[in-house]
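Handout, section B. The chain below has 141 residues.
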Amino acid sequence: MFLNTIENEHKQKKDNDTAYEVMGQINSNPQSEKFDSKDSTTFFSILISTFSTIFLAELGDKTQLATLMLSAQSGRPLIIFIGAALALISTSLLGVLIGRWIANNFPRQRFTLLSGLIMLSLGIYLVTEGFSDFIQKLNLS
């Protein structure tokens, strides 16, 4: 009986320590992770890099200009702030959920290659559109 208990505990610990592969990287089972100082450093570095990246990317974009216009027109900046904040939180949540799904369902290398090809294709498309518009304007002049 005692031996069976020890074997079951050993088997359960081994199952908890099993590593899972997510996007080509090996991650430990999230249920068996313990909070330590390394996790807090990682947490804060991810938080700061995420905040600064999104903050700088959002400065002066369409959303900020739309919020500015809505606030000026309505004269109710607090309500506009709450609505805009909820909208940004919702879109961020959607991005995180889709990103998590992609991380769990696609190998990292394949996803990196696919996203690179999509970005390259968009870049080529935008350059050719701009070039064709430029040529068209030269022909009309």
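Note. The CA atoms of residues 26 and 45 lie 20 Å apart. Compare this with the example in section A.
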